[in-house]
Every structure is written in C-alpha cells, then in structure tokens.
Amino acid sequence: MRKFIVMLVAILGVQVGSLAQFEAPPPNVRVAKAAIQRLAPMTMVAGTVVSRNDASLAAEVTGRLLAVADVGTVVARRDVVATIEDTAIRLRRDELIAEVERAEARLKYLESEEVRYGQLAKSNLAAATKLDETLSDRDMSRSDLQVAKSRLAQIEDQLDRTRVRAPFSGMVVERLMMPGERVETGDDVVRVVDQQNLEVIARAPLEYYSYVRPGRELELRTGSVLAKGTVRTVVAVGSENTHQFELRLDIAPDRFPVGQTLRVSVPTSDIREALAVPRDALVLRPNGISVFVLDGDQNARQVMVTTGIGMGDQIEVIGDLKDGETVVIRGNERLQSGQLVSIMPD
Predict the structure, then answer these.
(1) Per CATH, the architecture of 86-161 is what?
(2) Measured between alpha carbons, how far is 80 from 74 in angstroms, rounded to an integer?
(3) What are the E-state strand segments in 184-299?
(4) How confident is the model over 251-270, as pLDDT tens digits?
(5) I need a surface site. Which of 62, 174, 207, 215 has the fewest CB within 10 A?
C-alpha cells in the first residue's frame, strides 16, 4: 500500500509539472500614452469634392466641327480639344493679305512721288500744288493700309479661334457635340476638368462660424477613408432659409475623385485642454466604459471612465487616469484586471 501511494504521488507530480510547462503565455497587446491635448468638440457636415478648374468650352466662330477630343484625353494648357472648319476664313484671309499688299504698294508709290514733287516745288508753282495733292493721297493711303492690316488681324484672330484650346491642364470628361455637327458662336463643345487642383465645398450652421478660420486643418471622412483638408476660405453669407455658411478646403490631388461626397468635421466650440486617449483604448462592456492601464510590471488595471469631447481618433476620458500613463489599445477586449501582458513592438 505504501509503495502504491508513493507511485501515485510521483505520477501526479509529473502531471502537475507538465501542466506548468503548458501554462498560457501573457497576451500580446499594443499600447499608447494618455496625454493632455488641445481638443474641440466636432460635428460632421456633408461636403463634396470639386475641381477649382472645371469649364465647358464653347465655340467662338460658326462652322462645322471637324474633330473633338475623346473623353478621357489628358490635355495641357493651350492644347487643341476641338477643331472647326476654317475654309471660308482662310479664303477671306488671303483676300485681305492681297489688300494689304496693294495698300503698301500704293503708299510706297505716293511716298516716292512726294520726294519728286518736293524737289520740283522749289522752282515750279505747279509742282507745289501737285505736292499738296500727293501728300493728301499719301495720308489717305496710310489710313487705308492701317484699316487693311486691322481687318487682317481680325481674320487671323478668327482663324485661331477655329481651334478650341484648353484654358488649363486637365482631362476631357464630356463631349457636348460630335464631329460633323454645325456649331454657332457660344455653343458648348467639350468639358475639361482639372483633377489636380481640388477642393471640398461644405456648408455648416452659422452658429459654428466663429470656430472655423482659414488655415485650420479639418478631418475628412468617406467610408473607411480618413484624410485632412485645410480651410482655404470661409464665406460668411447665410440665407434666411438655410442659416448656413460655406467653407472651402484644399485637399491633396488623387486622394478623392471629383464629385465624391464625404463628411467634414467642423468644430462646434473653442479648443480646450483635456486628458485624451485613442478611441481604440475604450472597452465597452455592460457595466460601463473602461480602459486598461499598465503598471511598471506590465500588469493591467481596469479603470472605469466617462468620455467627453472627441477630435479625430482621440477622445477625452474622465476617471482615475493620469497624463503619461500607458493604456492598452490592441488586445484589450478579453483582458482582466490584474492580468500580466506582453507589449508588442510598434
């Protein structure tokens, strides 16, 4: 019997030792610091991404369209995006060139006559009279030449306008008329949008106007995408129906497409200092909201808190928590107070 008891104790000792070897390691967590920060309460308002350069380009002469750039064509400033038939204008230009040449020839002849009669007028009364007539004809010829050159310049300008050019770099996003159609002066032909110079237009209640100033960064959200925009201007003109003001924010290119709707975070009061933690530090349980704080030995302590204002991913917390303490932001869902943890490197 004694021998059996000794053997049983030995077996149980081996089992206990095996269980100790397979004891669960401390859970891995990520951490951050609670810190005093300057926060302001925010509200979300609707905004839309627009281009600062968005134009429907119109024909400036009448004629038949020969070509229109395809949708999606990337163009630089002054690139041709549409071409209008110019045969009649070219023929009129050739006619005016001939008129200019004729007027120049006439003026050249009269200037030579002026020299000749000027020499004869010194000794001949009749030549003096002829000189006066020549001078008059010369002055009229100079005027005729100036008129002819002005008409030629006008027709050259019309000829240049048969090429519809992009006023800025961008992309052709819409063909409003097709090749072969006849256009009149003022008809829209093509739409070009600059996709590099973007801004967000949003409207907020007038009561928040005093908290939004040019140069301030505001948070932009759409779905899971988070970005920043800088207030470029604030239009402090509301209507009696909406009681809203308009704000425009500069954003980085290629972050959002033109026309994207998003939410803009607008401050609703002045900035104040508060103890804040990342939102991921909050643990929501039936008994309330808490955060887990680590001591020097990496033991977790559960602290019940209440939340205040939030800004971005930071939120104010009120409770037994101090500036600079370490809080768990990942792996805190199943933690228990007093549990040892292992901090994962960033």
Answers:
(1) Orthogonal Bundle (1.10)
(2) 11
(3) 188-193, 198-205, 217-222, 225-235, 244-250, 261-267, 272-278, 283-285, 288-294
(4) 988 888 999 999 999 988 88
(5) 215
